[in-house]
Amino acid sequence: MHLKPTFHWFSALMVVALASGGQTRACQENPGKPTISVSGAQAGNANYYAVELPKTGTVSVTISASGDTPCPTGGEKCKCNDQTKDPEADGSPVYTFSKTVGNQDPADGPTVKWDVTSSSSPGEYKFKVTKIDQKYKACAQGWTGGVSSKSNTQASDEVTVLVYKLETETVATQPTDRQRTKVGVGEEVNLTIQPSSVTASWSVDGGSSNGSVSPPSGASTKYTAADEAAMGNVKAEFKGITKTTTFNVTQPSGIKLEASSSTNNKNPLRSGFIAKIYITPADVNFEKVKIYEGTGTSIATGYFSSLNGVNHAQGPDLSPSGFVANKGTQLAATDTVTTHANVTPYSNGVFRWPIQWHYKLGSANKPVVILEHKGELKWNASTSTATLETTKGGESATETNP
């Protein structure tokens, strides 16, 4: 004889015990669509996620499905005399995924695992659950009826996971590191998103004081760095995703001279050199700027005291001509640095001429560095010799008379 079991009934929801590990799972009289959740990716608009292609290592993405199966109907329940009960579930529900990448783990389980590496292909990858199937065991001995399986075949909403890569490349081919994010004022950088099907809106935080982009939309744009030192945060926005690339905009901070020939002469006495001019630092490109020597007032003593208070006139704008590794952006012009001691008798004296250099770009007209032109005459009465040394920007030249 069968004992009458006690059941707890719900109006629409019933809990079925699964055979594996004593887990429970809800069945639904009229189950809705299964749902999908994504972890390990940045959430954008509805059902859209993005993963930036890693340069190294792995980004692990998990796509998880959940949903209910239909409950057994009256004719599918196990029956014994006037008693009915649901058949016992046979294992966990089986999920049918429609996907283009990743591994379902287990092969019929609710989870797809996907490792994105540097070798993964940029693109949009779609995931959808098309079926959830719950198998049931046969009714116990003495019971009749039962059902072998119940399926919810409503397809879930499709989820898209974008794998993208944002590449930057300086327009200037020197320095050789064209992927650098430290750039000189006015430098231009191309930014490109892969896959090319992505249409982004481009902008710069803080407006034109931090640089500009053109065009403002598309799979690529060109960033033009600000006229002065700044942090240029370039934003690419697409389908609810924001990717920010920060450029450290650097202005000229130094002038490097490199003596290439001498202007020395014994009689009349003079010492000096002609120097190549480089803008530093040497890890960015300053091809868009112009450089000029500004004013300065001399300080002179002894032999040169008649030159005390002489003003240095502002020089012309000088344009870059190229870039030299480890030296900087070279100017097309040279600097002639010479000190004259044409009048005898000679005596000790020092001439100092601090000259402020500037750069110009757009609305910016900014100081760079002061280079001192120094001439020093040393008179040796015992040998009746005069030695004249000229220095500027770390270079020097010396001549002696006679």
Structure, explained:
The chain is mainly beta. It is built from no helices and 36 strands. The protein has strands at 13-17, 24-28, 35-39, 42-43, 48-52, 58-66, 69-70, 78-80, 83-85, 94-99, 103-104, 111-117, 123-135, 144-145, 149-152, 159-170, 182-184, 188-194, 200-204, 212-214, 217-218, 220-224, 230-238, 241-250, 254-262, 269-280, 290-293, 296-297, 299-302, 311-312, 320-324, 328-341, 349-361, 364-380, 385-392, 395-401. β23 (230-238) and β24 form a beta hairpin. The termini are far apart. Residues 1-24 have low confidence and may be disordered.
Outline the secondary-structure elements.
Elements: E1 13-17, E2 24-28, E3 35-39, E4 42-43, E5 48-52, E6 58-66, E7 69-70, E8 78-80, E9 83-85, E10 94-99, E11 103-104, E12 111-117, E13 123-135, E14 144-145, E15 149-152, E16 159-170, E17 182-184, E18 188-194, E19 200-204, E20 212-214, E21 217-218, E22 220-224, E23 230-238, E24 241-250, E25 254-262, E26 269-280, E27 290-293, E28 296-297, E29 299-302, E30 311-312, E31 320-324, E32 328-341, E33 349-361, E34 364-380, E35 385-392, E36 395-401
Parallel strand pairs: 2-7, 5-16, 17-24
Antiparallel strand pairs: 1-2, 3-6, 4-5, 6-12, 8-9, 8-14, 10-13, 11-12, 13-15, 13-16, 16-18, 18-22, 19-21, 19-23, 20-22, 23-24, 25-26, 26-32, 27-33, 28-30, 29-33, 31-32, 33-34, 34-35, 35-36
